[in-house]
């Protein structure tokens, strides 16, 4: 019998409620995570979009940096969207915030610039069938360099890398929780199911 994986959503700042709503629409079991004890009860974790320096500060205040790092190293799936992608990175172009250094990627914050810092476009996402995903970018980062163990799942026409995976770690520069299309969350839920089995 497969049990429904418990998907934690880091609920310190940002659009965690939208992630939880999308997970509920897939009959998943989302849990808001603000403490190490709540994290320990999760099979997988989403770090939402928001403001990465604020989220990093709150992560330190709530003593979650070590527990999230251990969670990722235990092989449980972790997905960062937008600000979450910034926090999963090994290194940033910018001096702040201090990222978690979990994925072998260099990330450039606010990479699309001020004039066009929010836009929507359709992207092909490797591993997601059924046509392109509609992707919402809000003051989004992009991935400027990937290490040898990182798989590029989506890039824009101009070459900007906007979705990557490294084993149990997934990062997207856009916000799948802001569109009604559940396929990106279904993709992550499958990672969670495999890990929880
Ligand atoms: N620009 C934000 C940051 O650097 C991320 C934006 C987002 O999560 N939508 O934290």
Compact overview of the structure:
The chain is of the alpha/beta class and 197 residues long.
* Rounded mean pLDDT score: 96
Series of H and E elements: EHEHEHHEHEEEEEEEEH
Please bin the fraction of helical residues.
25-40%
Biggest sheet: strands side by side, in what order? 2-1-3-4-12-11-10
Radius of gyration: 15 Å
Strand content: 25-35%
E-strand count: 12
Q: What's the story with the biggest beta sheet?
A: 7 strands, mixed
Bound molecules: glutamine
Sheet/helix structural class: alpha/beta
> What is the number of helical segments per DSSP (H or I, 4+ residues)?
6
Residue stretches low in confidence (pLDDT < 50, at least 5 long) are: none
> What is the overall silhouette?
globular
- In angstroms, what separates the terminal alpha carbons? 9 Å
List keywords for this structure.
alpha/beta; 6 helices; 197 residues; binds glutamine; seven-stranded mixed β-sheet; three-stranded mixed β-sheet
Describe this structure in words.
By secondary structure, the chain is of the alpha/beta class. It has six helices and twelve strands. The chain has helices at 16-25, 36-40, 52-61, 65-73, 83-88, 183-196, and strands at residues 6-10, 29-33, 44-47, 78-81, 89-92, 103-108, 118-123, 133-138, 142-146, 151-155, 161-166, 169-172. Strand 11 (161-166) and strand 12 (169-172) form a beta hairpin. The radius of gyration is 15 Å and the shape is globular. The mean pLDDT is 96. Bound molecules: glutamine. Glutamine binds at residues 49-52, 82-83, 86, 109-110, 138-139. Glutamine (GLN) binds at residues 49-52, 82-83, 86, 109-110, 138-139.
């Amino acid at each position: 019998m497969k049990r429904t994986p418990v998907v934690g959503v880091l609920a310190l700042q940002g659009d965690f409620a939208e992630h939880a709503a999308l997970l509920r629409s897939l009959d998943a079991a989302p849990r808001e995570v603000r403490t190490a004890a709540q994290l320990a009860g999760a099979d997988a974790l989403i770090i939402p979009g928001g403001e990465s320096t604020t989220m990093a500060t709150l992560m330190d205040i709530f003593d979650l940096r070590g527990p999230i790092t251990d969670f990722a190293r235990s092989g449980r799936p972790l997905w960062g969207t937008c600000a979450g992608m910034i926090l999963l990175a090994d290194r940033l172009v910018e001096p702040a915030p201090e990222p978690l250094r979990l994925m072998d990627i260099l990330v450039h914050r606010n990479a699309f610039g001020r004039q066009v810092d929010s836009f929507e476009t359709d992207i092909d996402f490797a591993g997601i069938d059924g046509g392109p995903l509609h992707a919402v970018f809000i003051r989004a980062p992009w991935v400027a360099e990937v290490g040898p163990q990182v798989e590029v799942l989506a890039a824009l026409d101009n070459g900007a890398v906007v979705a990557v995976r490294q084993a149990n770690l997934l990062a997207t520069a856009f916000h799948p929780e802001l569109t009604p299309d559940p396929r990106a969350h279904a993709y992550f839920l499958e990672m969670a199911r495999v890990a929880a089995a």
